[in-house]
Amino acid sequence: MEGLELLDAAGIREREPHCRGIKAISSSATCIVDWARVSGSFADDARAAGVEFFLNSEVKSIVRKAGVTVLRTTSGEIEARSVITCAGLFSDRLAKMTGGAMDPKVVPFRGDYLMLKPEKSDLVRGNIYPVTDPELPFLGVHFTPRMDGSVWLGPNAVPAFAREGYALTTVDPFDLLEMAAYPGFLKMAAKFWRTGIAEMHRDVSRTAFVRALQRYVPELRVEDCVAGPSGVRAQAMNLRGELIDDFVFDGSEGVLHVRNAPSPAATASLAIAAYIVDDAAKRFGLGQPVATA
Predict the structure, then answer these.
(1) Longest Cα–Cα distance in the chain
(2) Using CA atoms, how far apart are residues 234 and 236, in angstroms rounded to an integer?
(3) pLDDT band at residue 291, thresholds of 50, 70 and 90?
(4) Which fold has domain 35-104+245-284?
(5) Which of 34, 95, 175, 241 can bridge 100 by disulfide, Cβ–Cβ 3.0-4.6 Å?
(6) What pLDDT is stored for residue 289 in this prediction?
(7) Which CATH number fits domain 105-237: 3.40.710, 2.30.29, 3.30.9, 1.10.3470?
(8) Predicted pLDDT at 137
(9) Cα–Cα distance measured from residue 118 to residue 191, given in angstroms and rounded to the nearest whole number
(10) What is the pLDDT of residues 148-181, one digit of tens each?
(11) C-beta separation of 277 from 258 below 8 A
(12) Taking the domains of the chain in order of start, what are their residue ranges?
């Protein structure tokens, strides 16, 4: 591919003086963006096209009657001829409201980051990513410069105790029991228990977390880092305990469910949107599908 270059150990040191490795792929086309501003721009374009946003409105049920889909929400009822759901952490629950299949099931994984102290930001020039484990759809710990000049380190990947469990202490009994009782989760845990224990150790021990990062930047020290933000990944899983790393779409009359949109969903958002519109056009009989390239 254009813009890719294979580096040896000396080449790595030339690009990233504090990084160590055997070989690496350098991508001159890789960049970073302020995703909050990008998504805000998408929202502005949507509003200009006549879209209304109903924020903080939980969907309680989805009912199809007389050719109309009715969303019963905490902000009242919303009627539409066609509905597309893309609910992330709750995508399987919305699909279930319209009789969707049990699988894939969403299992939440929390990822915690550390951040480099500003005076140590010269340890990292650009994005540093490891070679990933092909059996797991997680990137592993990596180094990510941000638009504001900060550098994020991580994340780890541990089961969250709530679908919106952005902190270790956040527990939702229903979400936790649902996850623990799901056969697919039990099979996955039995297969990757060693990996799970290591990730949980890093979750409670900053020393262990930094040790994993030192594999790539040996000069990094615990005192160079401060606590960073956390995120929750909506990981789709099947009954066999396999983590789904591809897009999953299904639906029923008048409804299209986007049940899994894994990384790089943000990077590929415009291409994915074209795919969804194409699927919706065929499913809902809306006319000619859009052209995709």
Answers:
(1) 68
(2) 6
(3) very low
(4) FAD/NAD(P)-binding domain (3.50.50)
(5) 95
(6) 54
(7) 3.30.9
(8) 58
(9) 40
(10) 999 999 999 999 999 999 999 999 999 999 999 9
(11) no
(12) 35-104+245-284, 105-237
Backbone angles phi, psi at 18, to 5 degrees: -100, 0
pLDDT tens digit sequence for 58-93: 999 999 999 999 999 999 999 999 999 999 999 999
| CB-neighbour burial class of residue 287 (10 A; exposed 0-12, middle 13-18, buried 19+) | exposed
Q: Residue 64 in 3-state DSSP? A: strand
What is the full DSSP assignment across 188-246?
HHHHSHHHHHHHHHHHH-HHHHHHHHHTT-TT--GGGEEEEEEEEEEEEE-TT-PBP-S
Q: Which residues pair with 236 in a beta bridge?
A: 106
The residue type found at 266 is A
Look at residue 130 and tell me whether its pLDDT is greater than 70.
yes
Q: Compute φ and ψ for 156, nearest 5 degrees.
A: -85, -175
Tokens read off for 110: 């929390």
Task: Say if strands 83-85 and 255-260 run parallel, antiparallel, or are unpaired.
Answer: parallel
Residue 210, pLDDT above cutoff 70: yes
The residue type at 261: A
Give the helix/strand (H/E) hosting 26. strand 23-27
Instruction: State whether the Cα torsion 201-204-205-208 is positive or negative.
Output: positive
- Joined together, the tokens standing for residue 165 give 């469990």
With tokens 């005076």, the residue in question is: 119
Which residue from 47, 88, 83 is spatially nearest to 265, judged by alpha carbons? 88
What's at 159, amino acid-wise? P
